Amino acid sequence: MELIAINIIDGLVTGLLLFMLSSGLTLIFSMMGVLNFAHASFYMLGAYFAYQISMYIGFWPGLVIAPLAVGIGGALVERYGLRRVHQYGHVPELIFTFGLALLIEEVVQFFWGKNQMAYEEPEILQFAAFAIGGNSVPAYKVFMIFVSVGIFMGLLYVLTKTRVGMVIQAALSYPRTVEALGHNVPLVFMGVFGVGTALAGVAGVIAGPVLGTFPGMAVLLGSIVFVTIVIGGLGSLWGALIASLLIGWLTTFAASYNVEFESILLFFGLEKPEIMSESALRDIWTMTLPQIGPILPYILMILILVFRPYGLFGKRDV
Amino acid sequence: MKKLVKLMSATMLATAVGAFSAAADTVKIAFIDPLSGPFATTGSNGLAEYKFAAEELVNKQGGVLGGQEFEIVAFDNKMSGKESLINVQVAIDQGIKFIAQGNSSGIAHAITDAVDKHNRRNPDNRVLFLNYSAVDPALTNDKCNFWHFRFDANADIKMDALTDVMAQNKELGKVYLIGQDYSFGKAVAAAAVRDLSSKRPDIEIVGNELHPIGKVKDFTPYARKIVSSGADAVITGNWGSDMVGLGKAIIEAGFEGPIYTYYAASNGITRTFGEAGKGSIYLVGEGFQNPPASDRMSKYVEEFNAKYPDHDISQARITNVVEMLARAIDEAGSATDVVKIAYALEGMEHDSLWGGKVFMRPDDHQAIQNVHVGVHTDEDMKHPLDNSPYGIYSTSMVEMASANSPTSCKMKRP
Fold first, then answer.
1. Nearest residue of B to residue A140 by CA position?
2. Residue A264 lies in a domain
3. Can you give the CATH number for the domain in which B116 is found?
4. What is the CATH number of the domain that holds A105?
5. How many C-alpha atoms does B207 have within 13 Å on its Cβ side?
6. Counting CB atoms within 10 angstroms of each CB, which of A249, A259, B178, B285 has the fewest?
7. What is the mean pLDDT of residues B282-307?
């Protein structure tokens, strides 16, 4: 029972972190039709920038400056990179972002090396906030929850209650009409791309100390972010939130319980092979839930694509 | 045509240069390990250690055979077995007699096979394989051969020493095993189960699991399971970012017992653990630098760090490789007759720079040496790692660990 409570909290932290990445990506994807392969690389840049800043002036300035720097970088990439490639169609755009992801990884290794960086939580948050059954929850994780919830509230407010949000939402569905009405759609694109990458930057800044700041961090999170936006539905902020939380809890609970497939198969009335090493299905019999945990989100994505191709909350087809 | 002429003249020039340097009477050691790609830090660290050891321990002491110097020739194997075999061939073609490799037991298996075949086919041009880090026990058991020498304690010996130390702790009741889902992770878990159940049958193994290698984003759920299981200690063979991620998550989840590891030091790991890992992270291995074994050792480490500030002595046994090879060459009276040199290495007893003795067991060519268990700390730290205040301090030592351990090796001697 205690393990369930602690897993709900851990899954929430993972899910909210995923949300910060996927919210930016889903906006960019639905607006520009570009799957930004470099999105997780901006997350990595956020962590490295914040690490470098924290060396000189501490964690808190880094929390503000690093995402700003990443956002400005993202906006420049859109203005001088993506916009030029845009006229040649979607495939060159895709290849452009793919190349950018590789480039950013190499650049990071060039400046910071291949070792893990000693990027740490600020000292005032280095204590256990509370404990459930011997399992302590660090104060930093509580802080992560508050930051991500705050960002979600802010985004929701801007997108639904302000004039800028109206224009963005309109540009999402009818870009040509919005342009005809006299709005500067390319500027909106640049802004959305900048804000989206800045959000990835924030995620990097607060995840860096917990999940580790190393050159492989982008690859590790990259694919799961795409899965999230497909499950949630393109362009839907609520969809991104629900899908992120779903994946967060799914992976956390799967890694926590050593359910053996043997017991499931026996439950369904199958007979256990007598000589396991000669059975063709021995891999299935000996599997445990934590071993297949990492592929569960992908299975969920395939199911969603089959039965509800526009995602949980999406309005458009993928 | 022009290109061909250019190529040919370049080749001829290269051959001429090669012949010239061979005439300059140096004893060459081919260093074959990753110098590019994701494992480059480990490889380049090893190369720096070899170069420094050859310079300080052999060349400055007057060389071997009355004046011949050691030269380390670096080859980048890009962590690939195929590349390594090409490197071995190139090294042999250059007339190099000694091949040193350590990172990855998979590659060590490929090299030991290739060297064995080469030596059988070319009895007049044989080479030796000096394995300084690959710890798969099979290399000195079923797959052993006369040309392979291992200077590190293998995975079984390390687990034997670690469980010796753990068995003395009477308060230890429950142990959790966790590792990466591949051959080495499985080997560590199997050895831990075997050794613990024979030495302390009362210890309960409350968890024994493998996680996907290099794929886990967040180790928190694993850490929760470990805390909930009520374990008093954790054993893991994890390395790289999997080691840091797992260790940090376990400590953050409120686990207070020791975490016994194989590879939780250097290459940024010590610096990343920092204050959080103090007194929690333990390491099993040879050649620990704290407390210093002697003034000579301290001086060696300080001079190394002054010359290579970005590197650490993370594989201390490299000095044993270099010193023992130099002694064997002197004893054999030849730097080319590798059969004689191999016989001199077999059964050699050597006073290690890191304290204690190293004995090259003739039955399987496995070095028997003192194995330490040390703790990650900053107290009494004379030789810290990673340019941080932290390092490994030896807390217990098993003298000549596993000296009488059985081996399935049937050594065929020429």
1. B252
2. no
3. 3.40.50.2300
4. 1.10.3470
5. 27
6. A259
7. 94
B309 token code pair: 């500030």
Q: Which domain holds residue B336?
A: 2-153+304-369
How large is the average pLDDT for residues A157-170?
89
Residues in A closer than 8 angstroms to B217, CB to CB, are 14, 211, 220-221, 224, 251
Q: Tell me: pLDDT of B365 over 70.
A: yes
Instruction: For residue A218, give Cα distances in angstroms to A45, A64, A296, B392.
Output: 9, 21, 20, 31
The closest alpha carbon to B147, from B128, B132, B121, belongs to: B128
Per-residue model confidence (pLDDT) at position B9: 55
Counting Cα atoms < 13 Å in the Cβ hemisphere of A118 gives 18
Q: What share of residues in chain A are helix, strand, coil (percent, to 5)?
A: 75, 5, 20
Interface of A with B in 233-272 (CB under 8 A): 251-253, 255-256, 258
With tokens 């060519």, the residue in question is B365
Q: Does residue B410 lie within any of the structural domains?
A: no
DSSP B68: B
Is residue B334 included in any domain, yes or no?
yes
Residues in A touching B225 (Cβ below 8 Å): 3, 255-256, 258
Residue B324 located in a structural domain: yes
| Structural domains of chain A, count | 1
Report angle CA B66, B72, B78 to the nearest 5 degrees: 165
> Cβ contact (<8 Å) for B220 and A115?
no
pTM, whole model, 2 decimals? 0.84
Residue A312 lies in a domain: no
Determine the average pLDDT of the residues in A193-199: 94
Between A and B, how many CB-CB pairs are < 8 A? 97
- Domain membership of residue A277 (yes or no) is no
Lookup result for tokens 């860096």? A208
Q: Do B224 and A6 touch (CB under 8 A)?
A: yes
B181 neighbourhood in chain A, CB within 8 Å: 291
Q: Which of B374, B394, B376 lies closest to B291 in space, CA to CA?
A: B394
| Residue ranges of chain B whose CB lies within 8 Å of a chain A CB | 38, 40-41, 181, 207, 209-212, 214-218, 220-222, 224-225, 227-228, 241, 244-245, 248, 252-254, 267-269, 271-272, 274, 388
CB of A214 within 8 Å of any CB in chain B? yes
Q: Cβ A118–B388 below 8 Å, yes or no?
A: yes
What is the average pLDDT value for chain A, to the nearest integer?
A: 88
- Range(s) of the domain holding residue A179: 2-256+288-307
Residues of chain A found within 8 Å of residue B38, distances taken between Cβ atoms: 114, 215-216
Q: Nearest by CB to A118, from B181, B216, B271: name it.
A: B271
So what's the pLDDT on residue B10? 52
A50-59, A227-236, B149-158: segment of lowest average pLDDT: A227-236
Residue A261 class from Cβ within 10 Å (0-12 exposed, 13-18 middle, 19+ buried)?
middle
In a domain, B290, yes or no: no
Q: Are residues B315 and B345 in the same domain?
A: yes
Q: Both B310 and B179 in a single domain?
A: no
What confidence tier does B17 reach under pLDDT thresholds 50, 70, 90?
very low
Checking ipTM against 0.85, whether it exceeds it is: no
User: Could you report the per-residue pLDDT of A118-140, keeping only the tens digit for each?
Assistant: 898 898 888 888 888 788 899 99
Would you call B228 and A135 a contact, using CB atoms and an 8 Å cutoff?
A: yes
